[in-house]
């Protein structure tokens, strides 16, 4: 369903648009996702609305790596620090909110909810990589926490076509509205 409106206090939350994730092979080229994320960032800043950059990272000693067992295995050591750095194109500024997560979703174990609520945010515009992991996990939590939510489809991608399609076909329609970068920017302009 297309976005019907944006609340007066809407925040942009970009998931894992960081060097290590952007280097992965994705369905939509990462450069295109970065371009759309940058456009959204500029539009939100122009309206003086919060911009949140979420990255995944762990301490150098790996002591905070997820400990759970899975069929896919687990990380045995933390990636190098450059993995979690944001590309210069995003233009992260002092007034932006930067959240470092240690799990898939941006709310789990972070201060994201606190930072948004203290700024009076009632809606999140969400985009990033990967659709079925970080974006979907964050969307589920945002929905459970009572935020209105819009996911920007042309600013979101995955490494797995089937998982990406499932998120947009089966999961997101139950959690949020979905629209394009152009439409979100149009709504911001009033």
How would you describe this structure to a colleague?
The structure is a single chain. The model has no long low-confidence stretch (mean pLDDT 94). It contains 6 helices and 6 strands. Helix 2 runs parallel beside helix 6 and helix 4 (131-144) runs parallel beside helix 5 (161-175). 35% of the residues lie in helices and 19% in strands. Strand 5, helix 5 and strand 6 form a beta-alpha-beta unit. The two termini are 19 Å apart. The radius of gyration is 16 Å and the shape is globular. The chain is of the alpha/beta class and 190 residues long. It has helices spanning 19-22, 30-46, 112-118, 131-144, 161-175, 181-189; strands at 10-15, 51-56, 97-101, 123-129, 148-157, 177-179. It has a 6-stranded parallel beta sheet.
């Amino acid at each position: 369903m297309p976005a019907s409106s944006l609340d007066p206090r809407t925040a942009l939350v970009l998931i894992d648009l960081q060097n290590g994730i952007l280097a992965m092979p994705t369905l939509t080229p990462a450069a295109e996702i970065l371009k759309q994320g940058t456009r959204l960032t500029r539009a939100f800043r122009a309206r003086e609305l919060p911009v949140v950059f979420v990255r995944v990272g762990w301490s150098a000693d790996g002591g905070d790596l997820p400990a759970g067992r899975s069929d896919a295995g687990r990380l045995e050591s933390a990636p190098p620090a450059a993995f979690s750095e944001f590309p210069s194109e995003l233009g992260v500024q002092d007034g932006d909110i930067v959240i470092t997560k240690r799990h898939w979703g941006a709310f789990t174990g972070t201060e994201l909810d606190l930072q948004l609520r203290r700024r009076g945010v009632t809606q999140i515009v969400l985009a990033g990589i990967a659709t079925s992991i970080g974006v979907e996990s964050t969307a589920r939590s945002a929905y459970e926490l009572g935020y209105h939510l819009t996911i920007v489809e042309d600013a979101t991608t995955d490494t797995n076509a089937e998982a990406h399609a499932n998120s947009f076909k089966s999961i997101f329609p139950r959690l949020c509205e979905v629209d394009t970068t152009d439409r979100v920017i149009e709504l911001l302009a009033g």
